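Submission sheet (multi-component)
Chains listed below:
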Amino acid sequence: MDARMMEAMAGEMSMAEMPAMDAAVMQACMDACAACEQACTVCSMQMMDCAPSCMNCADMCNTMMRAMLRMPGMAPASMMAMLDACIAMCQTCMDMCMMHADDSPVCAMCADACRACMDACMAVKDAMMAAA
Amino acid sequence: MDARMMEAMAGEMSMAEMPAMDAAVMQACMDACAACEQACTVCSMQMMDCAPSCMNCADMCNTMMRAMLRMPGMAPASMMAMLDACIAMCQTCMDMCMMHADDSPVCAMCADACRACMDACMAVKDAMMAAA
Amino acid sequence: MDARMMEAMAGEMSMAEMPAMDAAVMQACMDACAACEQACTVCSMQMMDCAPSCMNCADMCNTMMRAMLRMPGMAPASMMAMLDACIAMCQTCMDMCMMHADDSPVCAMCADACRACMDACMAVKDAMMAAA
Amino acid sequence: MDARMMEAMAGEMSMAEMPAMDAAVMQACMDACAACEQACTVCSMQMMDCAPSCMNCADMCNTMMRAMLRMPGMAPASMMAMLDACIAMCQTCMDMCMMHADDSPVCAMCADACRACMDACMAVKDAMMAAA
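Outcome: structure written.
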């Protein structure tokens, strides 16, 4: 996500109900969601038993990323619940992929992307709670 | 959702980790999610201040519906968290739309669809807990 | 798609650049796209070699349906190109599923949904050209 | 898109029906689609009259990016039609955003992202035709 995009978002994110938040934490989370959507989509192509959770995780990560690009449409409660859902979905997908991460480098990559996305979502939750 | 689709899904839903669940409750929830996605998409076209939450709700409802079509990719924890996120997002969208439901029949329709989707998601949660 | 939704859409669809079109043709196409998205999503769960085209088709059908719910954001040229893409993607998916339709009732259902979606998209194209 | 992802994709992209293609051209196109989806999503938040086309363009770009991550599910005809649809949708969105690009830096950014996405899709088309 480049500087011009970040500036554009800063202008629209002043929703009264949302706590002030470190823009860099949000940016990192959106990037992690986008990377996880891509990794999961590729991993689902392997037709291994992780595929259904990879597809679900790809959709949830895309929905999460878009929600962060549309903060005026979020309230703290829905934001927290969406972050929890994204974390839980990444956990499920990572658990499935870790079962054959030794045999499949793609699953190992996907599990890494899920872990990074979970961490980034947790950082947004922490930032929200610190700012509340 | 027609009978042939339901039969097809029944065949794939035997994931050991998911509790047995009334197929009719799931079917009703998928239909409510699909209807809510459409209502929110139409409502967002009005360019009123509910539009951002309508867009977020449309995405979350589509992701929820797809997840229910891909139950082998869900674990109980991620399923519960996704249902909670869908309920919370519908609540936020409904709250926004209710602010001008008297002036806009489209917002009234959208708020109704959000309420129906929330109820349907709660029914799935109840069924999951009863079966656990 | 119910009557209230149709009425809501009629109010927003008066984009000068789009030819007048039979609302019933559009409604039928949106319903066919939604049904095809669901059928393809279920079919992709079988992990047969049609799965990648089923996933692509599910995404294209959802994007097509949403575009028809957001006609003020379409121009005739983009509408035509999107319909062509949806038809081509359904064709690819149907071709894949037909290869094992005899063995898999889900693939047979998916191929039927693809065919119905293609027909519905062609009907919208015909209506657009007749109204132009 | 990082090196490990590219390597993972290279392994799955050997579909007989798809012409050999420069991986860098595909990678650039996926990155342009992802950037355009984000720019359009942000631009649609402004509630200007470009918003509906921005939303349509965001969905089409995401569908296009995913299709490129799932090449085993594409045939040359559907790939070409999807690229044409993405180009046409970006054109419509860019035309709308250019109308107020002087007043809105976000619209200017969005129009730039649409132009870059169109160029990247055309480069993929050129590569497909050269390899056919």
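Remark: The CA atoms of residues 87 and 118 of chain A lie 5 Å apart.
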